């Protein structure tokens, strides 16, 4: 694990592999560590980075916890490490931060894989506000070797970091975050996600041409841990698309398809 100083704040991160850069951003529960299996899969052909956002894991607990502040952290992190154009794989909170950063810096973000992204603020469970991160982690994942990094690092979370991100979600959507985005985006949802409701049919029908949705029938909030082999294949298929190409052209495996009724 590495660390850098950004405006006197310690930020912890990890990096694996060589090639075009990918940045992994974690959700409201856990830290960068649960991305390690996905980083290892991506590192065969890419340089994979993951970091702890403000208030999570071992990064600074400085109470600059708005989505805008977290997006500013991403900007400073990329600049500090000399990273130019980048692909983002964001999960939950990380998907919100990644899409906000992409909206503000369209020339920097090549594409976004948004896992468990809430298409409106009402899709986020109220449990985030009144349940401890550790209890959330154990409730969603149980106690397994794969869940250990999530539950261990959940205990390090500043609860104010979760509340701070939720306080301005409404404002971000009022500003048309999703409608204004022109970056290629693959949305991934677990049909059994208890933290972020999957998109409704009317929302799916309104997705722009540069966006595509895939739902994992048996997946929860941590779809990348529920079935890492399928997730990694899908991630690599998305990353392999030519720059600017819509993910709607992905040919999905039968086991990834979900019939919307």
From TrEMBL:
One of its GO terms (biological process) is acylglycerol catabolic process. The keyword tRNA processing does not apply. GO terms for molecular function: monoacylglycerol lipase activity. Residues 22-231 form the AB hydrolase-1 domain. Pfam families: Abhydrolase_6. Keywords: Hydrolase. GO terms for cellular component: membrane. Gene3D superfamilies: alpha/beta hydrolase (3.40.50.1820). This is Alpha/beta hydrolase. It comes from Bellilinea caldifistulae.
């Amino acid at each position: 694990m590495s660390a850098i100083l950004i405006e006197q704040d310690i930020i912890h991160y990890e990096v694996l592999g060589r090639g075009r850069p990918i940045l992994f951003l974690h959700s409201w529960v856990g830290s960068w560590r649960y991305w390690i299996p996905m980083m290892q899969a991506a590192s065969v052909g890419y340089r994979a980075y993951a970091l702890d956002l403000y208030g999570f894991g071992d990064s600074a607990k400085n109470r600059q916890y708005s989505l805008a502040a977290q997006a500013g952290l991403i900007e400073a992190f990329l600049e500090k490490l000399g990273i130019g154009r980048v692909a983002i794989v964001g999960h939950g909170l990380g998907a919100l931060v990644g899409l906000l950063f992409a909206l503000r810096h369209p020339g920097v973000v090549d594409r976004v894989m948004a896992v468990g992204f809430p298409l409106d603020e009402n899709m986020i469970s109220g449990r985030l506000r009144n349940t401890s991160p550790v209890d959330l982690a154990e409730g969603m994942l149980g106690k397994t070797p794969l869940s250990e990094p999530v539950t261990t690092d959940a205990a390090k979370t500043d609860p104010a970091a979760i509340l701070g991100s939720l306080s301005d979600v409404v404002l971000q959507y009022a500003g048309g975050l999703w409608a204004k985005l022109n970056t290629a985006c693959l949305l991934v949802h677990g049909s059994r996600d208890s933290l972020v409701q999957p998109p409704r049919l009317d929302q799916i029908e309104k997705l722009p041409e540069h966006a595509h949705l895939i739902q994992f029938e048996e997946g929860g909030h941590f779809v990348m841990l529920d079935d890492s082999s399928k997730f990694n294949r899908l991630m690599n298929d998305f990353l392999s698309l030519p720059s600017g190409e819509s993910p709607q052209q992905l040919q999905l495996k039968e086991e990834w398809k979900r019939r919307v009724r």
